[in-house]
Amino acid sequence: METFLADHGLPALFLLSFLASTVIPLGSEWLVVTLILKGYQPEYVVAAAATGNYLGACTTYFVGLWGAGFLIKKVMRIDETALARAQLFYRRYGSWSLLFSWLPVVGDPLCLAGGALRVNFILFSLLVFAGKLARYAVIAAVTASAMR
Fold first, then answer.
1. Using CB atoms within 10 A of its CB, is residue 10 exposed (0-12), middle (13-18) or buried (19+)?
2. Domains of the chain: which residue ranges?
3. How far is CA 7 from CA 3, 31, 141, in A?
4. pLDDT tens-digit series, residues 31-56
5. Are 148 and 53 a contacting pair, CB within 8 Å?
């Protein structure tokens, strides 16, 4: 499967990044590194990964907006611990916690809570995209510098 994804380049990265920020527990960082090592332009790799990951987070936001209670437990199967962590982040840091939506375990519940708590979508978009873009940019920069 890894070879298949690596062979399909940026479209595969976009799809994997999208899925990784929804309900499917995947990671896309390895494909970012792989594509840069294969000679893809880091700017394009970061753009594909950040855009896919942001759009996946938007999907989770809208799930929270339209049916958080039912969907948290029945469809997304987010456990009480992860949900409690996301709610604690929101209580402590408010909407700014969305900058950490790229983190494993709490990232998806943060986006879901953003929708459930009706965070302004433009604010949600700016914070989430900034966090995800920064993560992929750091990964790409470290990978590119290691190649030199």
1. middle
2. 2-147
3. 6, 10, 22
4. 999 999 999 999 999 999 999 999 99
5. no
